Automatic annotation (TrEMBL):
<keyword id="KW-0472">Membrane</keyword>
<dbReference type="InterPro" id="IPR043993">
    <property type="entry name" value="T4SS_pilin"/>
</dbReference>
<keyword id="KW-0812">Transmembrane</keyword>
<feature type="transmembrane region" description="Helical">
    <location>
        <begin position="477"/>
        <end position="495"/>
    </location>
</feature>
<dbReference type="InterPro" id="IPR013783">
    <property type="entry name" value="Ig-like_fold"/>
</dbReference>
<keyword id="KW-1133">Transmembrane helix</keyword>
<protein>
    <submittedName>
        <fullName>Uncharacterized protein</fullName>
    </submittedName>
</protein>
<dbReference type="Pfam" id="PF18895">
    <property type="entry name" value="T4SS_pilin"/>
</dbReference>
<feature type="transmembrane region" description="Helical">
    <location>
        <begin position="441"/>
        <end position="465"/>
    </location>
</feature>
Length: 504
């Protein structure tokens, strides 16, 4: 509020003094703010006077607040309890000592009870669709509240609140079918709900427009072998109207003529069965609601085609048709499905020995794609393989092909051709084979060398002519030849005996 000065223009002027929250605030903090001005620009200080115990002198400790830097605006915040009566005013002084005051008191108020917490909303829940234009709003109780003030989209708040109840029914004429609204509520510490307490969060709800809510058929898709198809419609009516009839009509061939099947239900959901249907035949169906007031809802329509079973999946031949033993190779095959039928969802890599592994699809479901697998043949040879695929309705085998797998080594060791043919003793795959090959090698050499040594020893002996040294040489050669050949022969026999005993 503004208080014009009664002194000359050079005197200071108290322009305003107020408190916040305004009116009779709830118990808690209150802020006082005063503004002042001086035509000479020499305003020195502004003082806020607050009588907190209603004794009229404004001079008790803490009841005066002085502002000098800057003097205006001047603010002070105090904390009060419920029921406390407060009076206040402001004064302004310039450098020359001129002093002016606002009205005394400039304002009064009585502290109300503390702020109440916001209620918790319960129903209708956020984004819920109600089936009536007169729904009940429900919220949780707040301790200390004596009344509640609900609000709907700022278009409706009941005079006098809810009367202390934690629910209220929205009267007719406020909401409209198909409309979307927000609602919230605040608790009140007084019956008239004059004291301002915080609002709850806002939730949104929609009033149903009524009619057919959903229309479906099952199973889906429908095949020529499907014995029956179930048609289902759900509907709702907006109160005060109720459901009188839900009608489902089925039109075979989708020719727009009289429906071949009609189902009527007094409640929701409404179901009916029909079938089987011939392949390639389009089937359309629709539903409509009639409520108790005679209102007809818009017609909701749907349709499906009847699919053939068998021979709809085509799988090409596996490629490539060659591989290397022990090496990973990618094998692929083209897959296609006749139009309108379910796409392939899985494939297998198969051979005459059975399942070799699952195959992947470039797209799922696949109507025109490629199936593939990374596979390693563990041995060489020729193998017949093919792809097998399914779409959940039928399973087909692709064309079988022969995969030629090349050998990369590791077979029997070949014996070199030459004047003396014997195996390389290192051409072994285990320690026992290595020992055996070495003994065999030494035995082969002994068989070749021993006769030669015997012949040489005989020649030396026969030509010694009684020479003791030559006879001794021939005797030693003969002896060591026999001993060496015997050792090799015994070793070979011992190795064979041990291999037979140990099974290695």
């Amino acid at each position: 509020m503004v208080f014009p000065s009664l002194a000359e223009a050079a005197n200071p002027t108290v322009d305003s003094i107020s408190h916040a929250p305004a009116g009779n605030p709830p118990a808690g903090t209150v802020t006082f703010t005063a503004t002042a001005s001086d035509a000479d620009g020499d305003l020195q200080k502004v003082t806020i006077y607050v009588d907190e115990n209603n004794d009229g002198d404004y001079a008790d400790p803490g009841e005066q607040t002085v502002c000098t830097t800057p003097p205006s605006p001047c603010s002070v915040t105090r904390t009060y309890v419920a029921g406390q009566f407060i009076k206040y005013y402001a004064g302004a002084r310039d450098v020359a000592g001129n002093l002016e005051f606002s009205a005394i008191p400039a304002g009064t108020f009585t502290l109300g009870p503390p702020l109440l917490p916001a209620p918790n909303l319960l129903s209708p829940t956020n984004n819920f669709t109600v089936l009536t234009t007169t729904p009940a709003l429900v919220w949780g109780a707040v301790p200390g509240a004596v009344n509640y003030m609900p609000n709907i989209s700022a278009i409706w708040s009941p005079a006098g609140g809810s009367g202390g109840a934690t629910s209220i029914v929205v009267p007719a004429g406020i909401l409209s079918p198909g409309g979307t609204y927000t609602w919230n509520v605040r608790a009140c510490s007084d019956v008239a709900c004059f004291a301002i307490h915080p609002w709850s969060v806002s939730w949104t709800f929609k009033v149903s427009a009524g009619g057919i809510d959903s229309l479906t058929h099952s199973p889906d898709p429908v095949f020529e072998t499907t014995p029956t198809v179930t048609f289902t419609a759900t509907a709702s009516a907006v109160a005060p109207a109720t459901i009188q009839n839900i009608r489902i009509q089925v039109d075979i061939n989708d020719d727009g003529g009289a429906p071949e099947f009609t189902f009527n239900c007094p409640v929701s959901p409404c179901t009916g069965t029909a079938g089987p249907f011939a392949p390639g035949i389009p089937v359309s169906y629709d539903a409509q609601l009639t409520d108790s007031l005679g209102n007809l809802s818009p017609v909701v329509s749907n349709s499906f085609g009847v699919l053939s079973v068998g021979g709809n999946i085509t799988i090409g031949a596996i490629s490539p048709t060659s591989a290397i033993e022990g090496s990973v190779r990618t094998f692929t095959a083209p897959v296609s499905v006749a139009g309108g039928n379910p796409g392939v969802t899985s494939c297998e890599f198969r051979g005459t020995s059975g399942l070799l592994g699952p195959m992947s699809l470039s797209t799922i479901p696949c109507t025109n794609c490629t199936t593939s697998i990374n596979y390693t043949f563990p041995s060489d040879g020729s193998f017949v393989v093919w792809a097998r695929c399914t779409n959940g309705v039928e399973t087909q085998n692709g064309l079988g092909v022969t995969i030629n797998v090349a050998d990369v080594g590791g077979g029997p060791t070949t014996v070199p051709i030459g004047p003396i043919a014997f195996p390389n003793p290192l051409g072994a795959t285990s320690f026992t084979d290595l020992v055996k090959n070495i003994i065999d090698f030494l035995f082969t050499m002994a068989v070749i060398v021993a006769p030669v040594l015997l012949v040489i020893a005989g020649v030396i002996f026969m030509t010694a002519a009684g020479d003791p040294s030559r006879v001794s040489t021939a005797r030693r050669m003969l002896l060591w030849t026999v001993i060496g050949f015997g050792i090799i022969l015994i070793s070979k026999g011992l190795v064979e005996v041990l291999r037979a005993i140990l099974g290695i």
